[in-house]
Amino acid sequence: MATETEQVPGLTTTRAPFIESAQNRGELFIHQPYEQYSAENHESWRNLYARMEDRWQRYANEKFLEGLGSLGLRGDRLPLLDEVNQFLAPLTGFKAKPVSGYVPAYLFFDCLGRREFPTTITIRDVATPDYLPEPDIFHDIAGHVPMHTDRAFADTLVRFGEAASSAVERLARMQVKGGLSEEALHDRVRSNLQALARFFWFTIEFGLMQKRDAATGELGELRVYGSGLLSSHGEIKYAAESPEVQRYPLQLEWVINQSFRIDRYQPLLFIVESFDHLFDEVNRLEEWMWEGRLDNVAPGEPGVSQEEIEVSLEAAREKL
Fold first, then answer.
1. 228 and 284: one domain?
2. Is 74 found in the same domain as 182?
3. How far is CA 13 from CA 100, 236, 252, in A?
4. By residue range, what is the domain housing residue 137?
5. Global pTM value
């Protein structure tokens, strides 16, 4: 590890030579060169972690709080992924898998099905803690990974990954059998990927939970389990308390057809009662996929590029 007097290149979001080199070589799955984190990188982590602690205690789901303790995350320095995995793997079999940048949808889903979570290793600039042009290690490790320590949530994530991978494989198989033209195939893949991305967004990234008391049937206090909220100092409070946010019980037909924007606080959020409830909704999502009900969802955000479609189909065909 570099000493404080040594100059290191740093792993700052959008300004990391190590990441640029990996991308230029076409390397998606990489290692975490921990010695390259700069003093400013560690300061950024410390600042982000310190200001989230009170927010987590006030708004986070209890399983997230338990996960923080189980992982042994420290607020004084950036996490070493090998150490995180030593705590995480025995609990649910999950592990954080470092990546050099954006992971195409099918490959991302396939990783989830294998209990691997693609993890960004760069961290946002210390001077702009609220500006995040792309996911960083704080979002991925402090926002996502504590939830991966809970067996029910982890199993739900795996189930989603398996179902999502099957969606692209199903369409690739249909074309092989002569049932789809190339244009129709691409249109359906685009629709399925949009539906899956929307479900992931409104649950795993921005999900709320309100448990129902088994004895009285009454709903309890609203809590956050979505990682996009758990890693945002401003939006976690906004999501839980603001009267400007519309909050509704999760409705699958609504979620898969609902567009969203990533550049603003979310005006619409969905609530589940438990992770068993979420698991059941993932099973319904898969049923709908096999029935073809994801093949023509409402257009809109998120957009799915032609490259994304082709990469997903190529990877899916290799498994047929």
1. yes
2. no
3. 11, 22, 34
4. 17-152
5. 0.94
